[in-house]
Specification:
single chain, 67 residues, alpha+beta, 2 helices, flat
Amino acid sequence: MSKQQEQDNKVLRDFAFDAQSALQSYFHSEMWHGWFVAPYFAEGDDTHSTLYIGVFVDEELAQEVIE
């Protein structure tokens, strides 16, 4: 694995742990589910020059947040 891949993996891992902590704080419980961390490209970035990472939730969790 290259040094860049190792660094990218560290950033992704740190982001995932931060996201998990934020969701756990929001729901005040470890019982929530239906979320994942995934890479994505920005809308309109046809060259796919920048890869972003984000937290995505399924429809059930999104409904819980809205209510």
